[in-house]
User: What shape does this take?
Amino acid sequence: MTTTISSPCIRVCFVDGSADICVGCGRTLPEIARWGRMTEDERLAIMATLPDRMRAKGFEPQSPASSSSSST
Assistant: This one.
């Protein structure tokens, strides 16, 4: 049985050193590292903050192709 988890990943994985976030999804390295161990509620709460976080850091948020992904 495979469980899918919500993910903002758009497969543009590059962490901007000055912004300390992934330019594709807006997550920090600690969030990315913990993502699979978070509860769904924790993931959704973080995902709700990502568009504003990205704009505040000077990046344009993009929507993932699907709100669920299998591993990130």
User: Anything to note?
Assistant: The longest strand covers residues 5-6. Residues 40-56 form the longest helix (17 residues).
